[in-house]
Write a structure and sequence with these properties.
alpha/beta, eight-stranded parallel barrel, four-stranded antiparallel β-sheet, 13 strands, 34% helix
Length: 512
């Protein structure tokens, strides 16, 4: 019995040694814990005893944190500015070499300096890009010392290259500053630089004696398609558009489709300027002998004007510029109508246009358009002047078109700046250059340079006349020309690169 008791006591001592140590009692859980049923293990492994040293009780005295070192405030690097004496006393004008390095990148084919150098090279003027870059001058005043101001009275600055086509000559037409870059202020009076463009000259620079000159472009459907994929080219250089229209006979439906296509394209290009419409009263498919009286002719004229206006009133609510009659000179269908029915044919045609168009679109402009009227020895000038006076007496006309298709022949008169200016002023109403181009075919050994000289004279006469309101090109690029690409008749070559023609126009528009 004693032996049995001793065995029981030994077993209890062994079981007590294997039992786990009870830990601190945790706080009761709100949710009862489920009981897990554990499978018995075959061998119990003894647990090592760990002595735990209690942590000291925290006191209310906080240990001071190290004081952080003050962070230095970064000072922004100031933008380098041009010295006031470089820009007519203006301050805060950023140096474009720092703020707009892309404008001075001589490796970019579309950069303003490489394009200018390339245009001069094709015109027989050799100059390096580095020289143009180093010789740029900043112009902020006119020749008389007055500041260059935009239409809102804000100053602007032009970075120009002083062109000297032939150092051995003086007084050459294109001699002097050619605008390449321009700086203007935003609404916060902060300056910004960009390349100089037609649109800058139109929107910013206004000659003191002229309210507005638009750069207008006349186009083919192919060119409109090109523009829809190259909108920037248009918005940078042209502010308005010309749509030639032809109502003639069997081609009427085709031209209607063409006009509607152009109207859609114009809406895509988001032009807000009036459109110049050529050929509103087109009678080329008709003959005077088909009509027994002037009244019969006017019935047909009214139908055609009404139809054309119904198409074009989709643009600007009809407030556009309409060529009511075009080229009443010997050899044209319109001339034959005038020969049979006299001046009353002209008067009644404009009277109908007044009734159909201006009654519904009071801001529309009705003009007469003629070619070869830029020199007094051309017979078309006195003819144009006579028709304008006839219609002015009846208060039926708003403006006159000068087509300016130049050098289509090899015997043309060299345009004279002052004479063209006087002719424009002689009409007594606004003048629209409607169809400007210059064929190179008959311009001699250096056609690019000669073309640019002629362009400068035409545009300078327009800007300085005080009466010329539209500078309308009959195409933009040589490959789209109605004369064919060999004529090279436009400001941009067939690759869209500016020619000296382009820079001559910039020079005349800025009129520095």
């Amino acid at each position: 019995m004693k032996r049995t008791w001793m065995m029981v006591l030994l077993v209890n001592l062994m079981l007590s040694a294997c039992a786990p140590v009870t830990g601190p009692t945790s706080a009761p859980s709100a949710t009862p814990l489920s009981v897990a049923v554990l499978a018995p293990t075959s061998t119990a492994t003894p647990t090592a005893t760990v002595t735990v040293t209690p942590s000291p009780t925290p006191t209310d005295t906080a240990t001071p944190s190290p004081t952080p070192s003050p962070t230095a405030t970064a000072t922004p690097t100031p933008i380098p500015t041009l010295l006031p004496e470089q820009v007519g006393g203006l301050s805060g004008v950023p140096d474009p070499r720092v703020t707009n390095p892309e404008l001075f990148d001589l490796t970019r084919r579309d950069g303003p300096i490489p394009q200018f150098v390339n245009a001069m090279k094709k015109a027989g003027i050799e100059v390096s890009p580095d020289k143009v870059l180093n010789d740029l001058q900043f112009i902020s005043t006119k020749a008389d010392g007055a500041p260059l101001l935009d239409k809102d009275g804000k100053p602007f600055i032009v970075a120009a290259y002083n062109l000297d086509p032939n150092p051995n000559q003086t007084g050459e037409t294109l001699e002097g500053p050619i605008p390449l870059l321009i700086a203007t202020q935003n609404e916060n009076e902060e300056w910004g630089w960009r390349r100089a463009l037609f649109s800058d000259a139109i929107k910013i620079y206004r000659a003191s004696n002229i309210n507005n000159v638009r750069t207008v472009i006349a186009v083919t459907s192919d060119e409109f398609f090109y523009w829809k994929n190259n909108n920037k080219f248009i918005s940078e250089n042209f502010t308005a558009f010309t749509i030639p229209y032809d109502y003639s006979g069997d081609t009427k439906q085709r031209y209607d489709r063409d006009v509607n296509f152009r109207i859609i394209a114009l809406k895509d290009l988001k032009t807000n300027n009036p459109v110049l419409i050529i050929g509103l009263t087109d009678l080329e498919d008709l003959k005077p002998e088909d009509f027994s009286s002037l009244e019969d002719v006017m019935t047909e004229v009214r139908k055609r004007i009404s139809h054309g206006y119904s198409l074009f009133k989709q643009i600007n609510n009809g407030d556009n510029i309409y060529v009511v009659l075009n080229e009443i000179h010997q050899g044209t269908p319109i001339y034959s109508f005038w020969e049979k029915f006299g001046d009353q044919f002209i008067i009644e045609t404009f009277r109908i246009a007044q009734e159909v168009i201006k009654k519904n679109s009071p801001n529309a402009q009705l003009i007469y358009n003629e070619t070869y009227n830029y020199a007094q020895e051309f017979t078309f000038y006195p003819d144009t002047l006579r028709i304008v006076k006839l219609l002015r007496k009846q208060e039926l006309i708003d403006g006159v078109g000068m087509q300016m298709h130049m050098y289509l022949n090899d015997n043309e008169t060299d345009p004279r700046l002052e004479e063209m200016k006087e002719i424009m002023q002689s009409f007594g109403i606004p003048v629209y250059i409607t169809e400007f181009d210059i064929s190179q075919i008959h311009l001699g050994n250096n056609p690019n340079y000669t073309q640019a000289v002629i362009a400068y004279k035409v545009v300078k006469s327009c800007v300085s006349s005080g009466t010329c309101v539209d500078l309308g090109f009959f195409g933009s690029q040589d490959n789209f020309s109605w004369l064919g690409p060999k004529a090279k008749a436009h400001p941009f070559d067939s690759n869209g690169q500016p020619k000296l023609f382009y820079y001559a126009i910039l020079k005349a528009l800025f009129n520095l």
